[in-house]
Amino acid sequence: MSVTEFRVAFVCTGNRFRSPIAAALLARETRDLPLRIASLGTLDLGRERALPEAVAIAGELDLDISGHRARSVTKIDLERFHLVLGFERKHVMSSVVDAEALIEHTFTLPELVELLEGLPTGPEPADPIERALLRIRRAHEARAPDYRARPFPEVDDPLGMTMPAQRKTAHELEALVSELVQLLFD
Question: What CATH architecture applies to the domain 6-185?
Answer without folding.
Answer: 3-Layer(aba) Sandwich (3.40)
